[in-house]
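Hello,

I think I submitted the zinc ion job twice by accident. Can you confirm which output corresponds to this input? Input:
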Amino acid sequence: MASMFDAAKQVYADLGVDVEAAFKRLDQIAVSLHCWQGDDVTGFGNDAALDGGIQVTGNYPGRARTPGELRADIDMVLALVPGKKRLNLHSLYAETNGKKVDRNEILPEHFANWIDWAMERKVGLDFNPSFFSHPMLKNGLTLSSPEASVRKFWIEHGIACRKIAEVFGKKLRNTCITNFWVPDGFKDTPYDRLAPRERLADSLDRIFAVEINPKYNRDAVECKLFGIGAESCTVGSHEFYMGYAMRNNKLLCLDAGHFHPTEVISDKLSSCLLFVDEVLLHVSRGVRWDSDHVVTMTDELKAIAEEVIRHNYDKRVHIGLDYFDGSINRIAAWTIGARNMSKALLMALVEPAAMLKKVEKAGDFTSRLALLEEVKTLPFAPIWNEYCERCNVPVGPAWLAEVKKYEAEVLSKRK
Ligand code: RNT
Ligand code: ZN
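Support: Only one job matched these inputs. Its output is below.
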């Protein structure tokens, strides 16, 4: 194995690529694992079915049903994915000890177990208010509802979540990124598209008016093209949030599945980051619609990673995963997507950057195309395997055997 790595390393060195430097840089780039892949976005103590225009399909056995099961499953994923990781929680994952605590009343203490868990593993936490799967989502609207009482409830929820996030950041000494995604939209064509947008902006202003130290928490806003049952107009569209983030100094969240099918977020990064300081990514894979399929090694995934690496956005782009597949082993789904994200970053890190820059600058587009094509068949696998080995995670497909064992010993017993 070592000799294959050494040979591959030399191939890259001949192209001016420092593989050891690539490893070091990758060690510093965190990928935030979305807790909701483990239980089909169900959460705890929540009786409402998943709504808000998102959907999980499949009923593969072994879904995590309790906080303990979910944390055990995430531990499994942490042991299979190389590189730096964070955990992204939704407010749905509060632990209230069987007590009914409504969303506008959740407190940091309801996340005490998660904080302990994160502290022990030295992983940062990210957070999300949950504006769905709740009776106060009325006529498909929350923060943009015409009913003041509905808006008030969700504004309180947003504020409660930011206060929880602040505690995450403070206790873990690691800035939390809180993402606001609001499903609000219309199944059929509205007459007035402006008023709901004015109300959404106003509600967000009220949520963000509460001062939280940015050292502990920073907020992101996520746009969307459409959801199931909200096909004709989404209140929080791309233009809405691009404008909101720019004016209010928020992070812009770009979800790979939230645009027209031929539109890609990789191309948006260099534009958005000219005008907003930081971006949050929801790396996902939409198939025909925002279907949140497991992240695979697509051209777009590679392009997203390339944009981050080529423009040195390591600190300005926060990488999170966002998909939910209940049709296959959920731990495998998590692992495949997370390993692919990390792998795509490493691929981007070992591009012959200096050569590519040089030929492009010289206007030699022939060489640029030739090089970009040659790169595709360089001996990357031994480089990736070496990285996995150094991170103490399984090399190659060996992770799958561990998932199968866990399935036999743990998941299959969950009835
Ligand atoms: C929905 C958004 C949002 C959710 C999660 C669960 O379209 O992508 O990010 O997937 O918050
Ligand atoms: Zn998303």
